[in-house]
Amino acid sequence: MKLFYYLPEIVCVAALAAVLVFGLFFVRDLFRKKKGESSCIYCKAAAAKISQYPYLFLIPVSFGETYAEPEKYLLSHMRPIAGKEQIPTGMRACYVEVYSCTGCDKKHVVVKDFLRVRGEDHIKEIHEFAYEPFRPLLEAWEETNQVQEKRNQAL
Ligand SMILES: [Zn+2]
Predict the structure, then answer these.
(1) Ion ligand 1 — residues with CB under 5 Å?
(2) Separation of 41 CA from ligand 1 center, angstroms?
(3) Domain segments of the chain: what residues?
């Protein structure tokens, strides 16, 4: 059997092709992240940022602490804040960005968990989640900040 004879080569070529394809996906992902774009979590097509606000939330976690089950933890612990000046020293906060896919039209969020040290943001973790579970939090943020804006105008 000729095919059997060439089997090691065939396996090698297939493995190489797989590595190449995954490598390309990986590099494309990295490239998009650098440009401030994101890949769709559903279909991997390019997703564009559509959030208009710098959604900022406080996370009751300090310095290098970690949390298990990020989505569950963040959904129940994130608190909307208006600006970085409201972050207590040593506490973590996060930005939430909303992206919309150019391929399948679905939305997802990117949560950037960071620690502010001497005026600089040090990203601790970056998570990507479905949009829907985070929508109430984003709406709560908008509400809090609109209320504050009105209060500022009244003063
Ligand atoms: Zn998509």
Answers:
(1) 40, 42-43, 45, 101, 103-104
(2) 7
(3) 2-35, 46-154
Q: What 3-state DSSP class applies to 25?
A: helix
Q: Please tell me the distance from the alpha carbon of residue 137 to that of residue 12, in angstroms, as a whole number.
A: 49
Per-residue pLDDT at 114 exceeds 80: yes
101: CA distance to ligand 1 center in Å? 5
Give the tens place of pLDDT for each residue, 34-56.
777 789 999 999 999 999 888 99
Give residue 1's pLDDT.
60
Q: Two tokens at 19?
A: 């590595």
